[in-house]
Specification:
With about 210 residues, this protein is of the alpha/beta class. The protein folds into two domains: about 140 residues, Rossmann fold; about 60 residues, Winged helix-like DNA-binding domain superfamily/Winged helix DNA-binding domain (Arc Repressor Mutant, subunit A), CATH 1.10.10.10. Strands 2-1-3-4-5 form a five-stranded parallel beta sheet, with helices on both faces. A two-stranded antiparallel sheet has the order 6-7. The protein is elongated and about 65 Å long.
Length: about 210
């Protein structure tokens, strides 16, 4: 029996996933939680094979929760799922220790398949995502990840990553400072972050510079 813990702050989503999973005779949902503190409290009491973790769970963000999970409960395998595009988060979650990534727009059948695969210690991503990530079949590790950033956005990102301020970026690219601020805001939106530190961390995880 595959034991699953669901971590999502929406009760209706937890119920829906539970019903989908328990329609399969080899899967049992042993707990469901709505916050990261509840998740770690539950893990002191129960030992799931797989934690289904929603990316935007309250308190600590999904990536930080993943790292903590891996550190404190190394035998528990995580399957991340999110309403965010796979392009944005898939690789960074796998790098942080997830065994799989599932978009909430994925077909329901994928949920059961993903939980089974992850419980066996195998990586799960959708075929569409595998093609985009160009996985190396031998090592099951992503080679390189290409985001839909314009060449100018990548240039701005590289300069920001090297520690340059907006004014220096503007001078280096022969732009005005306001235009650089616009590029920066666009980059933050595309990578779903709201500050420069997170922008650079996310960009680094996605190998954007």
């Amino acid at each position: 029996m595959i034991k699953v813990l669901i971590a999502d702050n929406h009760p209706i989503v937890r119920l829906g996933i539970k019903q989908v999973l328990e329609s399969s005779s080899d899967i049992e949902v042993i707990a469901d939680v709505s916050t990261t503190s509840e998740l770690f409290e539950a893990l002191e009491k129960v030992t799931p094979d797989v934690v289904m973790l929603e990316m935007d769970i309250p308190e600590i963000n999904g990536i930080a929760t993943l790292r903590k999970l891996k550190q404190e409960f190394p035998n528990v395998k995580s399957l991340m799922y999110s309403g965010q595009s796979e392009d944005v988060y898939a690789l960074s979650t796998i790098r942080a220790g997830a065994f799989g990534y599932l978009s909430k727009t994925a077909d329901l059948d994928y949920v059961i398949t993903a939980v089974r695969k992850v419980s066996e210690g195998n990586m799960f991503i959708t075929n569409e995502l595998a093609q985009r990530l160009a996985f190396d079949e031998g090592t099951q590790k992503p080679r390189r990840f290409f985001r839909k950033l314009s060449s100018r956005e990548v240039e701005v990102l590289k300069l920001l990553a090297s520690g340059k301020r907006n004014k220096e970026v503007a001078e280096g690219l022969n732009l005005n400072e306001k235009t650089v601020s616009t590029y920066k805001a666009r980059l933050m939106k595309k990578l779903n972050v709201d500050n420069l530190v997170d922008l650079l961390q996310q960009a680094k995880a996605l190998e954007l510079y």
